Amino acid sequence: MPLLVGIYERQEGTLQALFEKLWTPLGLRVQTGMDIWWDRGTLYALNGASPAGGIEIAMKHLQEYSQSRLLGAHVPYPIEAWPENNQAHLAAESALYCRIFIEGLFGSQPAGLRAFTSKPAMPNDWQRMVLRNIHGFGQKFDLLVERINQRLHITLIREGHFDQKQLIPEGRLAKFSLTFK
Questions:
Q1: Domain limits at 73?
Q2: Measuring CA to CA, which of 33, 57, 92, 153 is 20 to 30 A from 120?
């Protein structure tokens, strides 16, 4: 949870605890030494790890989680709780999966009624990522992030046109203000 709210003072230790001590092939344990795991904790960990410098390990585990849930023999949705509730699912957990991309990879956060910030965390082997058909701040837009010479070029696209562009160092924050067209 500290990583989700921007507390990074002990991020290395937190990432180590999440992905070395608490991680299982099924997801994140709720407590060290116990075989109980919840998707809620797993999805929060994957979301918080990206902006805290853990993008590579988060992507590895996100791919495994997605493979298991979307293409594997397991249920195609997040589940709560195992083992005590026989893997009954809670629909709200499905929204947490989407937040990994919006808040984790793209680092998007509201900054007002018509404004937001973006602090993308793109895996090292990616050169480009795009989030399409975002409905927010009274607008519909796409957000394109491209890596150019160790910097991130972020483009906000509305109605098929490049509306706003920013070039930032990796790990920095970009601010966007949206007005009605």
A1: 3-102
A2: 92
